[in-house]
Amino acid sequence: MIAREHIDRLAGTSAAVIDPEGNKIGTLGQLYLDDNTEAPNWATVKTGLFGMSETFVPLTEAVTDGDTIRIPYTKDQVKDAPRADPDGHLSEADEDRLYQHYGLAGAGSFNTGTAGGGFGTAGTGGDFGNAGTAGYTGTEGLSGTAGDEGTGGTASTAGYDTSGPTTDDAMTRSEEQLSVGTETRAAGRARLRKYIVTENVTQTVPVSREEVVIEREPITDANRDAALSGPDLSEEEHEVVLHEERPVVKKETVPVERVRLGTETVTDQETVTEEVRKEQIEADGTGRREQGL
């Protein structure tokens, strides 16, 4: 089975996909990863004239051998597989039809990760962090019991709760306190997708050509013998081959850069407003004096 360590070597290449007999079915298109394990479980195979058709094949029993991927399916079985749009995600309905076609059991959810041929891993933009736990607010306290006013300016006797059983001589005041925490959640997905565009490139190159030049020289003692070597009067033709240069265009594909997805953490300030409740204690009657806070 093709594992995660094979992704960087295979992604973005045109590795040949062959059947059990070694016959070529097509070339590798895109790798599809399991959402949970990030293992490559599906791939598309480019078949047909110029590789214009893409068909899904499972990688459960596929093996790699150098620049080839061997799958336990025939070319006709791959070409007759149900069509699915290779748009970056397989729907459950598409997966069910593909599983049934290849005689496999189970279903999952798979995404592509293409970008310059690489696939993200944890900490490099491939995954999202697990959600954290939000902070909890404080717990509202239970009210205590009210005490009686003391005799002669003191409060040394036990009070009693007029709404229930006798308690101590103090009442507990409680209030809610706001505790704000944070949680981490997935906010979106980012993908790199490579596609081909065509542009016109104009370059100027110097070219040379030959032109006929007529040279005349007078008869001298040096060339007289050559001039008189032929008949006195005759008809003749002389021919010279002219050459010229023409531009010749060659194209080659060269790597120019590598692009990958990464993440960085930025911190913003966000104000949270929430209502909290608190208890207030007031005393009724005359001749009272507050002590303490």
From TrEMBL:
DUF2382 domain residues are 171-282
Q: Where is the composition biased (Basic and acidic residues)?
A: 274-293
Could you tell me where the Low complexity compositional bias lies? 154-164
Region annotation (Disordered) maps to 140-185, 261-293
Which InterPro entries does its entry note? Bac_photo_RC_H_C, DUF2382, PRC-brl_dom, PRC_barrel-like_sf, Stress_Response_Assoc
Domain PRC-barrel: residue ranges: 16-77
> Which domain of life does this protein belong to?
Bacteria
Q: Please state what the protein is called.
A: YsnF/AvaK domain-containing protein
- Report the source organism: Arthrobacter deserti
